[in-house]
What does this fold into?
Amino acid sequence: LAKTTQPISMDSYEGQEVNITCSHNNIATNDYITWYQQFPSQGPRFIIQGYKTKVTNEVASLFIPADRKSSTLSLPRVSLSDTAVYYCLVAGNQGGKLIFGQGTELSVKP
Amino acid sequence: GAGVSQSPSNKVTEKGKDVELRCDPISGHTALYWYRQRLGQGLEFLIYFQGNSAPDKSGLPSDRFSAERTGESVSTLTIQRTQQEDSAVYLCASSLGGDSRVQPQHFGDGTRLSIL
It folds into this structure.
């Protein structure tokens, strides 16, 4: 199972764009990259998933370089409500099992 | 609501007692997962059910932990002879299928278990 490394914490201000980078050097060919968001006292919530290049949805963008050894979650114009822990996961077909690291604690300040 | 429902939301019990945690997945979701999250940590996989296949129990930390699922509906996680190290939030998730590459998991808000 591919291991991921991401910063433990990040600070930002309202209205700024936030980029969280995740390293996954031993990603396998059939692995996808998935990001989840978790607020205090809640379960994680799926944000975005991708295999290569760029994926965009109404919440975020995910940038994946050609070698796929890293990925960057981009949150445009963050607000206070984006304060949460963000988890980067690399998921192959291991029967659904997800391996969560410690995540990145994002703190958005006014 | 249409989300994953877990009960109870909080459980406080004495060391040595048995506890049973319940998860109601989203209707139609064939896959169901249990995770444990200790304070300030990421999620730790416990067990996974997919349809009628044998469950993947590879994450269960000891034989005091067990889980059952009836068909494609409710699941219960049982911890026998609880110990203080079992204190954590227990999260349940469900998904349409078992391939986590393309089927996102939908999580409940967990049961916070405290062992005195």
In short: DSSP finds no helices and ten strands in chain B. The first strand of chain B starts at residue 5 and ends at 7.
